[in-house]
Amino acid sequence: QVQLVESGGGLVQPGGSLRLSCVSLGGIFGSRVMGWYRRAPGKPRRLLGTITSNGIANYVDDVEGRFTISRDNAKNTMYLEMNSLKPEDTAVYYCTNGNSWGPGTQVIVSS
User: Fold this and answer.
1) Could you tell me what percent of the chain has a pLDDT over 90?
2) Which of 103, 95, 60 is nearest to 78 (CA)?
3) Which positions of the chain have pLDDT values less than 50?
4) What distance in Å separates the CA atoms of residue 85 and residue 89, rounded to the nearest whole number?
5) What is the CA angle 23-28-32, rounded to 5?
């Protein structure tokens, strides 16, 4: 059973940056496509982007250019670098390998 654990969330001011991490415990991380989602208050969970096993990332339109997905297969870890954060980026952020989900990490963008 693969367990995914996100970390790195917190409170940040508008215009600030955060880096989220997603560690995969168990399973074979390096061969899996991974994804980041978020759920804003009162809204459904939605895809932010994915990254292939060899590090090719794709993003949805409204975060491309501000968010960067990367991975370190040797550390079984995927990252989400978020820059120029806006209040509307406030959400719980989740990672997934397509089968398992992490519990999420809260990001609050507020002054």
Assistant:
1) 87
2) 95
3) none
4) 6
5) 80
